[in-house]
Amino acid sequence: MPEIDTVVFLKSMGVYITDARRMILSAFLEKENALTQAEILRFTNEAIDRVTIWRTLDLFVSKGIIHAIPSMDSLNRYALLQSKNRAGCFNNHLHFMCDSCGKTICLDTVPVPSIVLPVGFMSKQTEVIVKGTCKNCQ
User: Fold this and answer.
1) Burial 58-94 (b: 16+ CB within 10 A, else e)
2) Could you give the CA distance from residue 41 to residue 75 in angstroms, rounded to a whole number?
3) How confident is the model at residue 73 (pLDDT cuts 50, 70, 90)?
C-alpha cells in the first residue's frame, strides 16, 4: 500500500486534525482487516480513550473514510472505504469472517450477488457476510 500522509488525507476529507485521529487512521492504513474499537485501543497502546475512539469512528463513518461492518458477535468492525487517493474497499462489497482467527476481511473483488426484491421494495444497501476459514488459517 502506498504511503499516505494522514494530515493531508484528513484535511482533504474535511476533518479537523488531531493526534488521536491521525493515530486511528494509521491503524486502518497498517492493518489489512477490519478493526474493532478494542483492536484500535491496543494499536494505540491505550494512548486514546474509548470515547475518543468511538467518536472518531463515528466521524470517519460520516465522512466516508471508513464503513461499519455488521457482525454476528455484536462487535462493531470498521474498514477503510475505497477512494481514488488510497487503498481500501469499495462501498458495495462482500465481507469474509474467519472462524479461526476472527478477522473480518473486505472482498472487494468478489461481485455482490444481485437480489430481486418484491414489487414496492427499494434496496438501499446490500450487506453480505461469508463465514469460513481464511487463507492464512488453512
Assistant:
1) ebbeeeebbbebebeeeebbbbbbeeeebebbeeebb
2) 14
3) confident
Burial class (CB in 10 A: 0-12, 13-18, 19+), 128: middle
User: Tens digit of pLDDT for each residue in 113-136?
Assistant: 888 999 999 887 777 888 899 898
DSSP 46-67: T-S-HHHHHHHHHHHHHTTSEE
Return the residue matching grid coordinates 476459514.
133
State the total domains in the chain. Answer: 1
DSSP 8-state secondary structure symbol assigned to residue 26: H
Instruction: Find the CATH number of the domain harbouring 11.
Output: 1.10.10.10
pTM here is 0.72
What angle separates helix 50-62 from helix 19-30, to the nearest 10 degrees? Answer: 70
Whether 42 is covered by a domain: the verdict is yes
